[in-house]
Amino acid sequence: MQDLVTKLVEKNSSKIVLCVLDGLGGLPVRGKTELEAARTPNLDRISSGASLGLHVPVERGITPGSGAAHLALFGYDPVRNEIGRGVLEALGLGIDLGPSDMAVRGNFATVKYEGDTPVVTDRRAGRISTEENRKIISRISSAVSEISGVKVSFYPGLEHRFVVVLSFLAQLSESDALVCDTDPQAEGKSPVRPSGENKSSQKTAEIAGELIDRACEVIRDEPAANYMLLRGFSVRPDLPTFDRAYGLRAGCVAAYPMYRGVSKLLGMDVLEVSGDSIGDEIQTLSANFEDYDFFYLHVKKTDSYGEDGDFGAKAGVIEEFDSLLPEITRLGVDVLAVTGDHSTPAAMKSHSWHPVPLMISSKYCRGRGVEGFSESCCLSGDLGIIKATEIMPLLLAHAGRLRKFGA
Fold this sequence. Notes:
Helix content: 25-40%
Order of helices and strands: HEHHEHHEEHEEEHEHEHEHEHHEEHEH
Radius of gyration: 21 Å
Number of strands: 14
CATH topology of the largest domain: Alkaline Phosphatase, subunit A
Largest sheet: 8 strands, mixed
Mean pLDDT: 94
Number of helices: 14
Structural class: alpha/beta
Strand content: 15-25%
CATH class of the largest domain: Alpha Beta
Number of domains: 2
Shape: globular
CATH superfamily of the largest domain: Alkaline Phosphatase, subunit A
């Protein structure tokens, strides 16, 4: 699909804004999803004349990670272009990765020891503050800088997140990074020991295992962040840029490193945001509106509260976004899309496979006069249920940026 779209692209002066409320989709609690429970007069008003539907990030029944889900939103096949979380997180933090570098995403966690065996009691260490994270990273960096000739560098992220970069002496391939995640994905379980899928990745796994042992010995006395979980071992891939694929000068407005990372990987300009609130992001969007054709604006807390199982707080973030939406529309947006990268129902406290609500608004929409923007309204919309990789072609078509195909 992307190759065909690239051949049909033509440029004009239209403006496209894609708003991604991370983990937007939900499941009913007391009869309503978070989106249905939220008061969203602005979204409801726009939806009445917009095209609505649901999208499937990867395939039906497949629960996506955030990186894969975002690649799909941007029109890149997430199965053919599988990218590790480590690279995305590293690029989002502004870390330059060379051909001999491997990036790994880390979470600080809380464990209790049963003898010598750690058991996870909190996979996110109570979402410690970013400042506390920096202090702990400094402790680890002073104690662990090299393992078996491989340079080890630690970088703090936001809250409990961090990045480890392993710098080898020789150029790496994707097969060198085929190491399992150590996160057991549930409290009450022991961390998974790193293991590789082949000979070269097993060497990486052994280095990772020693890294964990040495680092966790340093932080064993921490009250909350006394362990680390590693995931997303990866090397930087080569993908066509957004400009080359779609002829768009694109700007990313996101506070969290992973989402800035996937944008940077695709050649978007990552715009600086003064804070991490929705208002801060919209201020950045407004300040840069004349300089770009396409904006990706990311809202994180819908996903965070969904993973915490906090139905009311997730609905509250949706309401906050809705209250600020007029500040986006008054900029003169030609094509506005509002969706999520995946569903994160508070009822499940995790990502899920459920199709994600999608709204596309432009002067070329048919619309069906639906009552609002919700999972049930989107199910009756004119778009139906589509694959996420079909969203970018639709946005380009609504923006008048695709020529006719064939004679």
